[in-house]
Structure formats: C-alpha cells, structure tokens
Specification:
Number of helices: 10
Helix content: over 70%
Shape: elongated
Strand content: under 5%
Largest sheet: none
Structural class: mainly alpha
Number of strands: 0
Order of helices and strands: HHHHHHHHHH
C-alpha cells in the first residue's frame, strides 16, 4: 500500500503527539480544594435544585388561574380551586384546569346572561369613569348587565354599577380622538412665551 507524503507526515505528527503527551488532569482543583468544592456542589444540588423544582412546579400550576383572570372567566374562582387541588394530586387535574380556563363558558352565559366575571364590570366601569370608553362600549356594558338582570337578580354591586353607567353614558364621547387629532391640537396650541 502506497502512502502519500501528506499521509506520512500526518501519521508521524499523530504518533509524536501520542508519545509526548502530558498527563491529563481532570480538574483545575486538587486535594482538599477538590473535596470542598464537591461538598458545596452536593449542598447546592440537595437544597437549591429541589426548591427550584418546587417553585417551577408551582408557577406552572397557577398558569390556568392566571389565564382565567386575564380572560375574566366567570368561573375563575373554581379554576383557582382546581389548580390548588392539582397541586395536591401531583398535577393530574392540571390539564382539566388548563382546558377550563381557555374554554368559552357558553352554558354559563345561557344560564346567567354573561360570560364575564363580575370583576370585569368593575374594571370597565372604572375605565368609563376615567373617560376611556366610548358611548357604544358603555351601551354594550349596559345591555350585558340588563341581560344578566333578566336572567335573575342582579347583585347589589352590579346594580349600582349599572346605575353609574346610565349617568356616565350621557357624558361619554362618541369617539376617542385619533393620534392625528391630538397632533393637530398640539400644533394649534399657542406656546408660552411666544
């Protein structure tokens, strides 16, 4: 078998590297320093890792609860309870809570006249008080509260919000000013000292 010059030189370099190689060192530490580092790593692995795993487990299990709150799900309190039960049962109920949080409460709306939690109406009424809602949005809130009242007795707090929406509807703007209108108003304002 004929070897080319390049192969011969590569083989010679490889044999030389093997023959003159230094002893391999597995760690940059040695002696007592290596033992101390191993003790600290063991303490971290035995304490910090389980605590971190529990925190991550907890954060994952409250995701359905957070989603239900964000979406103003009318049954968010029951979803919260199911999330806590899921923690006790090792996560077996978590997929049910996840699906429930992202489902549309159609049967709830048919029974109670709304598919939103009462906190939604509080939040929207606060926005209406601040002037952030249009007249059409206030009308929609009033209609939704009226449909809830038609299905059954409206809780006193929601009845009070309904009355406030009647008062706010009169003062609500038909449309909010656009960015163009705001920019034009800024240009036409007289400047102080000009």
């Amino acid at each position: 078998m004929k070897w080319s010059a390049a192969r011969k030189s590569a083989a010679t370099l490889a044999i030389g590297a093997i023959c003159f190689a230094r002893q391999a060192v597995a760690s940059f530490l040695s002696g007592d320093a290596l033992d101390t580092m191993a003790d600290w790593i063991a303490v971290i692995v035995l304490t910090v890792v389980p605590i971190g795993a529990l925190v991550i487990f907890w954060l994952v299990h409250v995701l359905p609860e957070k989603a239900a709150e964000k979406r103003h799900h009318p049954q968010k309190d029951a979803i919260t309870c199911l999330c806590l039960l899921s923690l006790v049962f090792g996560g077996l109920l978590w997929p049910i809570a996840w699906l429930w949080a992202y489902s549309r409460p159609v049967a709830y709306k048919a029974a109670y006249g709304t598919d939103k939690h009462e906190d939604f109406f509080d939040e929207m009424t606060d926005r209406a008080r601040e002037g952030q809602l249009l007249a059409g949005e206030i009308d929609h809130l009033r209609v939704e509260l009226d449909s809830m009242a038609a299905k059954g007795a409206l809780p006193p707090r929601l009845r009070q919000l309904r009355n406030e929406l009647d008062a706010l509807h009169v003062n609500a703007p038909k449309s909010l000013p656009s960015e163009r209108d705001v920019a034009a108003a800024d240009v036409t304002k007289p400047r102080a000292g000009a």
